[in-house]
Write a structure and sequence with these properties.
Blueprint lengths: L18 E10 L2 E9 L6 E9 L7 E10 H4 L1 E10 L5 E9 L15 E5 L3
Antiparallel strand pairs: 1-2, 2-3, 3-4, 5-6, 6-7
Length: 123
């Protein structure tokens, strides 16, 4: 496995006490767009989906925006593993499974059943 040297690594976003994952990056014109899932932990109760942009080839990231947020307690569901995709005509789409609350596996957590949703990232 090829490992990048520390000097070539870039942190797109880091929030203390939040679990960041399911990142996707796509070129869009002269910029890069990144989406990611921010949650309280891997088996999440609180989930947010975020988007940000880079105008310098990925060296720096800005314009961090919340796309959507869900929680099991409030919505009886949360977003699972968002995927950033591009259609043939160049439209960027963010596809998200909606995990619906069913029988709790342990206090404060639930098993999920996927439901599909998608959001255009860039109008």
């Amino acid at each position: 496995m090829l490992e990048l040297p520390k000097t070539a690594r870039v942190t797109i976003r880091a929030d203390e006490n939040w679990y960041m994952h399911s990142a996707g990056v796509a070129a869009f014109g002269d910029e890069l767009v990144c989406t990611c899932r921010r949650s309280d932990e891997h088996i999440a109760s609180e989930v947010e989906t975020w988007c940000c942009r880079s105008y310098d080839g990925g060296r720096t990231w800005q314009d961090h925006r919340l796309i959507s947020g869900t929680s099991f307690e409030k919505d009886q569901a949360c977003w699972v593993a968002p995927q950033l995709n591009r259609t043939k005509d160049g439209t960027l789409l963010l596809l998200c499974d909606r995990g619906v609350k069913s029988v709790p596996r342990r206090p404060g957590r639930a098993s999920t059943t996927p439901r599909g949703s998608s959001y255009p990232v860039i109008p």
